[in-house]
Amino acid sequence: MENFRFKAWEISISRERKVIELPSGKISDYFGELTFNKRVMKEYLPSDAYKRVIEAIETGAKIERTIADQIAASMKAWAVNKGATHYTHWFQPLTGATAEKHDAFINPEEGGKAIENFHGTELIQQEPDASSFPSGGIRNTFEARGYTAWDPTSPAFILEGTLCIPTIFVSYTGEALDYKTPLLKALDAVDHAAVDVCKYFDENIKKVNATLGWEQEYFVVDAALYKARPDLALTGRTVFGHASAKDQQLSDHYFGTIPERAADFMRDFEYQAHRLGIPVKTRHNEVAPNQFECAPVFEDANLSVDHNQLIMHLMDRVAAHHHLKVLTHEKPYAKVNGSGKHNNWSLMTNDGVNLLSPGKTTEENARFLVFLVNTVKAVNNYPDVLRAHIASAGNDHRLGANEAPPAIISVFIGSQLTQTLDEIEKIDKVENLTTNGPDFNLSIPKIPEILLDNTDRNRTSPFAFTGNKFEFRAVGSSDNCAKPMIALNLIMADQLRRFKTDVDGLIEKGNKKEDAILNVIKRYISESKRIRFEGNSYSEEWMKEAEKRGLSNITSTPEALKVLNDPKTVELFEINNILTKRELEARQEIKLEKYAKRIQIEARVLGDLATNHIIPIAIRYQNTLIENVKGLSEVLDSKNYTRLSNIQLQSIRDISEHIMEIKTNVSAMIEERKKANAIENTTKQAIAYRERVVPYFEIIRYHVDKLELMVDDELWPLPKYRELLFIK
Ligand code: ADP
Ligand code: MG
After folding, report:
1. What mean pLDDT is predicted for residues 181-198?
2. pLDDT tens-digit map of 363-387
3. Is the pLDDT score of 703 beyond 70?
4. 3-state class of 125 per DSSP?
5. Using CA atoms in the order 318, 324, 328, 333, what is the torsion angle rounded to 10 degrees?
6. Ligand 1 pocket test, candidate residues 278, 283, 298, 302, most atoms within 8 A of CB
7. Where does a domain end: 178, 198, 226?
8. Is the pLDDT of residue 5 over 60?
């Protein structure tokens, strides 16, 4: 992109290429070298301690004090060897980010010396001063503190000289204050429920892990331009900005060559990620200019969630070295594609069998269909619970806002599977169709091993089956994957439990196992038909059709969060032992508050920019026009003056109109904000922000963006889209 002009921020735009030296060896030489993984544990731990940790990881068994001391000692020895000086419990409070409090290993000794120390108690439990983390009223700030407790299923790692120990974060009274606690519970619930169902097919299955492979979309922007845009810096998105003459209309960025500067940055953070054992594999350009995606190989959901949190942190740090800024906001630029974080999800047995992968034998296919149909049924039972777990102020710009994906939760399974399910639904006499014999033989239609829709898939669906996994596409790019993973694994666990009860009920009545399964599946297919949609999810017709089917179309966060204290939701969470009513209420409260605060900040930034940056510049430019018109009257005769000054006079009037509109609307917005602030009920407050404050954003923006087109480019106080969207 050419330099259109010379602006203050141009000076600080970095033009220096930063090429990092990667080690000459293969990725596998340094992959995971900064993690205290199983291989390292085996090397550093006495064999008994090693056995116990593995047991703890695999079965959740408790670790005794003495063993914990041994683990802590080895962990410290390993970390110090790698140059670490500090340790921290690394956890995911409800603020959305990760939290750390670093302590040095150092312990003073007699005679002014010191030694490095780290005990089992310090590994297992910590009491961070956490009084200012949101708790939704659960933990009174004066009363008790939160505890962090080690999660041995996610390996400790060294980040920036600190040994980080992944932990959960709970209150003094045992209530969850983080995302990891309910996530681990949901994963445990789905494990047990899925194992029980697997036993219909294979008695030997012992464990089922939920797997997650996320695809992280993001934008990069030059750090100097970012700093020159207070809206980007304070809210993560541009509240103003006229579309660039060229952005994504030629689709020339998507899968194109990655710009050199972005590529240098990617190589750098991928190297850091690989050292931390994050299996990032794919990188490519996304649809919008300067938009990219990074995706790892899938892992156990808990680890994958941690890795996504970690990679967002890494990207941010590494970008700074390249004078870049990473934008994970769902919609940093208006009228340009937003960013999401597809959550690819499946279930895998301890034998490595993907339960959502069609098999070779009829038995494998029967098992596949059972898990497929139960997933569809689970989403059908609780679409609004899923929706609530991806709601955020940022994601409101995507879901239901003329942008992919839609706010209506539906499931896409592809034409072949649709046909299969239709055929199963039509079987009327199950008993007549199953064959007797030693083999498990459901009379299910044949399923091809490779599903056509795997390649030719529907990109408009928020929850799509993609051959051997489901892809939850409605997740926001900045969100913690734990949220959708809690919801999805919980509803799946709940559904699989019901399935088991239903099937066992029929078996008790004297049905054969195969018949019982087929009968229940058949019923589920009919019952969950409304959630299946194969067409264009963005279309008007779907909105109407979905409404007829009784599916909700929730376009705002405050609306989406309402379901969290619905008795049906509370029951779902309580029966499955994931969160209590109180914990759910607390979470709802925190999310609503966070929403209101974010809108409040955006409103302030918008008002400030419009009033203190845009209007003064518009007036300055208008003054030059006024001077010009006055000058014209001196140099032109009156006939020509009347004819020729018209255009300038019109511009002068237009500028005044826009200024007036901006001023009036900013004042009105401030009034509404004040009213919203005075509301005590958090739900009502969030709704007031959404319904009475947010609508002003677009109105004000319209006038500011018009001014951007009129005012002398040299005077305009903010970097424009054409600069932000193309790194130089
Ligand atoms: P896309 O075309 O959407 O980019 P890919 O086939 O490249 O899809 O896969 C996207 C993601 O899906 C990757 O992160 C990959 O690891 C993940 N994935 C593949 N199989 C599974 C699975 N069984 N469970 C969870 N995630 C999976
Ligand atoms: Mg995808």
Report:
1. 97
2. 888 999 999 999 999 999 999 999 9
3. yes
4. strand
5. -170
6. 298
7. 178
8. no
Ligand 2 centre to CA of 338 (Å) is: 14
pLDDT per position as a tens digit, 314-332? 999 999 999 999 999 999 9
In a domain, 706, yes or no: yes
**Neighbour-count burial of 183, counting CB atoms closer than 10 A to its CB (0-12 exposed, 13-18 middle, 19+ buried):** buried
Enumerate the H helices of 14-151 as residue ranges.
27-30, 38-44, 47-59, 65-81, 120-124
- Is the domain of 161 the same as that of 41? yes
572 and 600 inside one domain: no
CATH number (domain holding residue 609): 1.20.120.1560
Ligand 1 pocket test: which of 214, 287, 465, 469 has the largest number of ligand atoms within 8 Å of its C-beta? Answer: 469
Number of independent structural domains in the chain: 3
Q: Are 164 and 192 in a shared domain?
A: no
Tokens representing residue 455 in the block? 């390649």
- Domain co-membership, 286 together with 399: yes
Instruction: Ligand 1 pocket test: pick from 344, 347, 451 the residue with the most ligand atoms within 8 Å of its Cβ.
Output: 344
Distance, CA 342 to ligand 2 centroid (Å)?
A: 6
Residue type, 176: A
Q: Band of the pLDDT at 551, cuts 50, 70, 90?
A: very high
* 344 Cβ below 6 A of ligand 1: yes
Q: Which residues surround ligand 2, an ion (CB under 5 A)?
A: 215, 342
* Residue 514 sits in the same domain as residue 601: no
> 701 lies in which domain range?
594-724
* CA-proximal residue: ligand 1, atom 23 (nearest): 346
Do 362 and 491 lie in one domain? The reply is yes
Kindly give the distance from the C-alpha atom of residue 471 to the centroid of ligand 2, in angstroms, as a whole number. 7
Which atom of ligand 1 sits closest to the CA of residue 356?
23
**Ligand 1 site, residue 347, Cβ cutoff 6 A:** no
Residue 453 pLDDT more than 60? no
Q: Which ligand is nearest to the CA of 282?
A: 1
Cβ(87) to ligand 1 under 6 A?
A: no
Q: Please tell me if the CB atom of residue 476 comes closer than 6 angstroms to any atom of ligand 1.
A: no
Q: Is the Cβ atom of 303 under 6 angstroms away from ligand 1?
A: no
Lowest pLDDT segment from 172-176, 339-343, 491-495, 620-624: 172-176
Same domain, 493 and 519: yes
CB burial of 265-304 (b: ≥16 within 10 Å; e: otherwise) equals bbbbbbbbbbbbbbbbeebebbbbbbbbbbbbebbbbbbb
Helix (H, G, I), strand (E, B) or coil at 583: helix
Q: Is 35 in the pocket of ligand 1 (CB under 6 A)?
A: no
